[in-house]
Amino acid sequence: MGSSPIASTFARAVKFETRTLTPSEIGARAEAAVASALIRAGRSVFLPVFGINSRIDLVYADADRLVSVQCKTARISGDVLLFHTCSHTNYVRRDYSDQVDVFGIHSPARNLVYLVPTSELPRTGGTLRLAPARNGQRKRIMWADDHVLGPP
């Protein structure tokens, strides 16, 4: 007896969701999550039409100004969210200083989005602390809770 079309379609859908995502797919999910969180926060969001490969992923209206955003995906390592603050195209690192106003950070593991001003971050990688450091350090720590925008 053969399998039903519905069962085989479901099996393909499950296989699709468990495969490894490409960097472009990961980036697209981060952009969608950040845009969604901004809209939920009552902001108007604008997407570039002709700047598909630009350094700006989206723009939102905040009071009387437009804010440019570069979207990144964070991963958790211990008590810290880690994310890149530069691009890695063809093994060449390019930072975003003077090109975007904020980073929109999507954490799939926490199902949250964070907004962090570009000026507050190092040029190659950023961290947001989820819990106090074990060594008691308190200076120069960026707390994730201080930058939460909300769920996507």
Q: Categorize the overall geometry.
A: globular
**How large a portion of the residues is in β-strands, by DSSP E?**
25-35%
Number of strands: 11
Low-confidence runs of at least 5 consecutive residues: 3-16
How many helix segments? Answer: 2
What would you report as the Rg, rounded to the nearest angstrom? 18 Å
Computed structural class: alpha+beta
CATH class: Alpha Beta
Major beta sheet summary: 6 strands, mixed
Please tag this protein with its features.
six-stranded mixed β-sheet, Trna Endonuclease, Chain: A, domain 1, 11 strands, disordered N terminus, 152 residues, alpha+beta
Question: Could you walk me through the main structural features you see in this protein, from its secondary elements to its overall organization?
Answer:
The chain is α+β, with helices and mostly antiparallel strands and 152 residues long. The protein has a single domain, classed as Trna Endonuclease, Chain: A, domain 1 (3-Layer(aba) Sandwich). The chain is built from two helices and eleven strands. A six-stranded mixed sheet has the order 1-2-3-8-9-11, with helices on one face. A hairpin with a 2-residue loop joins strand 2 and strand 3. The longest helix has 18 residues. The chain starts with a helix and ends with a strand. The N terminus is likely disordered.
